[in-house]
Amino acid sequence: MSRENSTATTDDLHDDVTIRTTEMHTSGEPVRIIESGFPHPVGSTVLEQLDYTRQHLDDYRRLLMLEPRGHFDMFGALLVKPKIAEADIGVIFLHNNGYSNMCGHAVIALARYAVDKGLVTSRTCPETKLAIECPCGLVRAFVQFDGEKTGSVRFRSVPAFVLEADVVVDVEGFGKVKVDISYGGVFYALVSAKTLALNLNTACARDVAYAADAVSAAVKSQVEISHPESSGLNYLMGTIVTDGQDRFSEDATTNICIFADRQVDRAPCGSGVTARVALQHHKALIHLGQVRRFQSGTTGGIFTGKVVEETTCGGYKSVIVEVSGKAFYMGSNVFTWEADDQLGRGFLVR
Questions:
Q1: Residues 329, 334, 335: CA angle, nearest 5 degrees
Q2: Alpha helix (H) ranges present in the chain?
Q3: How many whole angstroms separate alpha carbon 282 and alpha carbon 308?
Q4: Positive or negative: CA dihedral 198, 203, 205, 207
Q5: Which of 91, 84, 88 is nearest to 38 (CA)?
Q6: Which of 22, 317, 320, 324 is the most exposed place for a label (fewest CB within 10 A)?
Q7: Taking the model in full, what pTM does it have?
Q8: Overall number of domains in the chain
Q9: Domain with 262 in it
Q10: Does the annotation count 136 as an active-site position?
Q11: Model confidence over 75-127: pLDDT tens digits?
Q12: Which residues of 339-348 are buried (b: 16+ CB within 10 A; e: fewer)?
């Protein structure tokens, strides 16, 4: 079963469910930070805790991500105890159809949140450093702090690399399509909008989601997705449709990420930017230290990305990519559930 697919629901909800959250967004993409009331998952790594949550606690994800408390494009971040000694916090990412091993827009929000809530040992000017254990591994973040207020965040994820470049897949409804498959903490298929007869400036999100979902289905059935160091990372998160402007430019390049069950990312997608920068570096279109701007095709939000280091990952030439953005607070919630409320367990209207 693909890692973004949820398991069958369990019966682990208790009659006295009370869950507290802080609500944030990054470029319009929601981040529901789950602070308390969610049972503690078991595991010696955060990746193992994710597997435990999928198998035993998925009712809680449904409760918070789906209607009536969430919506089709809701995204969540469950705070968990990190297992890597140098990590300040651990996190499991949740979405409409399951879980993710990495999420950049949520890391940006969590980093600011962790500094503001005192989850790191100390604040320092001009920025505070912290480490977040994600299911994909250790992610390092740097939060701007002027002595009074936190600001923008930059993060450096796990080594990013290109799995397949210019591979041709047969996409239902579109025929032969050339795609790239790149890893930025999760694997994405990357394809230009032109290839799919789309224009990101005029296309509606539904049309982009339909086309991207067809590409994802083709890649999953025709290409072996394999991470060289962990079988727990062997899945395709989704497809990123781009404007095709991959060569370095001072102008922003636009993309829309469609992941999970046709979920539309409102942000430029932090793990997607990591994967795109790795691909551009692989094709010698961007060089070490060059800063590229990436724009969301849904909200116009901007992330920046650059290669800060060349490295390797299980035999693949890889890079460390730094992504920058800013998150904002929206409020907080206390969610409850009554045992006879079957609709309250979570549903979606598509």
A1: 120
A2: 46-56, 58-65, 104-116, 205-222, 270-282
A3: 14
A4: negative
A5: 91
A6: 317
A7: 0.95
A8: 2
A9: 161-322
A10: no
A11: 999 999 999 999 999 999 999 999 999 999 999 999 999 999 999 988 889 99
A12: eeeeebebee
